[in-house]
Amino acid sequence: MQSGWSVPDSDGTAFTPMVVLELAPDTNEEAIKWLLSRIRDREQNGGVELLLEQTLTGGHDGQKGNPNVFLVGSTLERLLHGAEDVGLFKEFNDGSMRAFTYTNKDNFKDFQGDGDSLLSVAECQYIIKHKLDTLRAKDEANVPGYPKAKLYPGKSIIRRLQSKGILLQVFPLHDKEELKRLSFSWYKKVKFSSSSSFQPLNDIRRYFGEGLALYFGFLEYFTFAMLPMALIGIPYYLWDWEDYDKYVLFAVFNLVWSTVFLEVWKRSSASLAYSWGTLSRKKAFEEPRAGFHGVLGFNPVTGRKEPVYPNSKRQLKIYLLSVPFVLLCLYLSFYIMMIYFDMEHWALALYEVEPNFWTGLFLFVPSIIYAVVIEVLNLLYRYAAEFLTDWENHRLESSYQNHLVLKVLVFNFFNCFASLFYIAFVMQDMVLLRQSLATLLITSQILNQIMEAFLPYWLQRRRNKKAHKRLVKVMGDRELPLPEQAQLESDMSTYLGTFDDYLEQFLLFGYVSLFSCVYPLAAVLVVLNNITEVYSDAFKMCHVFKRPFAEPASNIGVWQVDIDSHAIVSKGIDIYSPLLLFKMNNDIIFVLMSSDLQLAFETMSVIAVVTNCALIGLSPQMKAYFLESDTQLILLVVCVEHILLAFKFILAFVIPDVPKQIQIKLARLEFESLEVLKKKMRPHLRKSWRPRRAQTLTSEEEEEERHRQPRY
């Protein structure tokens, strides 16, 4: 697993530490002993059978180290059983991807010897995290030593400790040697290869998990997909083509490009997810969020006690406070936008009075100020949206994320694009639209690079400068001890997920697709931004942030949504689920039902069709053909827009989301699974339909029963 590190458990068992569990320095000793015993205890007794060793992290800046830091690991056998519990898919000997089972482990391609090479370190860390999350209270009324930290049977112990501030953090350790190799192949050299990717996506996936690997795969794909738009946009910008026919061609190309771009990504995403074993993986049963609270009740699904919160209260909070707050923020954004237009008029008036180089340069100042204000408002609103969504008290993490995404997307879309729509369709000033779009796009990219890469890197270097000096003075060129390595990583910033990264790409996609008729050079700027984004994001993942836990993903998260599934009725059993898993005699039988829609990007591409058609209709060249009748122009634009939308949806329908060869593999596996299911269920069905009276009837009663039965 991890190279060079091995520590003994309390019973003398050597293990490779993979996860750090840090409790508060003043944690009650009774609570520590209770938690460690529960983690080490056998599963039959309610434990999770993990290995731990306490390590004292060295302090810095004159402060004492935290004595309550524990290194967590596991035996290989427990990890393999855990791989089956979490539903990992691995490549079978026949080349198909199948759910891993411990009893059938020898039939998997990568299982060699004792199976040490089957699981990546990221998968091992994910399994350990899953085991810690499933550690539940038995008959304890509270955490020992903490009467206010209430427990009840079935309550997640880790979540309770986190909510009460007893458990500070749980994070996976970096593998220094593996990280060095990944950094070199990822961003320390320019790679020119005939392979399908310029990034080591498989290595990224093995080190950080499928979620991050899919993000970087999407970032690379989006960048290369922008190249045709950039190459066509350059001559449009340099020669300043204003002819109507040229703009129509560019708008139609943008329409086809945006549709093909999304559909081909679906196929690429499906291919990656299948090869990584997540396309056909079951969805884990969601537990209540750590911050969810309510009156203790009973869950009829799990049969466990858990907090219950009335949905009516949550809906009242949403509609009586959250929705009005969002509308108020939108109004505030609109008000600031109008101030920006006043500044534009003032700068333009100043230029008209005294036209020179400096007043001409001053024309860009209002847009730059407004771009900075937009970024600040987005940041402040994000904090407010998180506070409101927490206050709404959603039970599941998926529900929490959906409501947070909706709030953030609505505000960010309005805040970033409202001024451009106002200039285009109210003021109808195409020169100002082009200038504003260029200024907003360039300024936002510069600010994002500063906030996402340079600022975290600078803060991290400043935070660890003294610690590094002390360690170099003590250790010299020797390898950093494990406790000191854990201390350095614990002080690093926490990576909050890929949502902000996808949001940035979503807004860039909007800048390119919505106003391509007016500013064709936008794609060039996005390509340049994304090239630096790949390297800066790779650097901060390797050196700025703590290593995040791997998150299995088959698509790009909240930006995709399942839109199709079907019910299976088998032997009187109704089943309705994105993924059905039966487990009989250690055989995993699954039926896959999934279809993904790139909801956010798809919606943006539809809006782009309407916007580009409207911009063409507003162009002077187009109006010259309809000098006497605006009604005919509007009808023509609406008609063309409907035709283009119809073409777009037909194109999306024609291009399958999943490649044919993968469809065949999934269908074959589904067929085999159903056949095994039939064989497993047939004896039970025969037994259930066997007449019970026939076992106790005498020969005379059997003869009488035959005469009673009707003849056909």
From TrEMBL:
Q: How does it sit in the membrane?
A: Multi-pass membrane protein
Q: Please verify whether the record's keywords include Transcription.
A: no
Q: From the record, give the transmembrane residue ranges.
A: 212-235, 247-265, 318-341, 361-383, 404-425, 506-528, 599-621, 633-655
What's one GO MF term for it? chloride channel activity
Give the keywords, sorted: Membrane, Transmembrane, Transmembrane helix
Ranges where the Anoctamin transmembrane domain occurs: 204-562, 599-668
Against Pfam families, the record matches this protein to: Anoctamin (PF04547)
**Among the entry's GO cellular component annotations, what is one?**
plasma membrane
Q: Where is this region: Disordered?
A: 687-712
- Where is it located? Membrane
Q: Which family does it belong to?
A: Belongs to the anoctamin family.
**Per its record, how is this protein called by name?**
Anoctamin
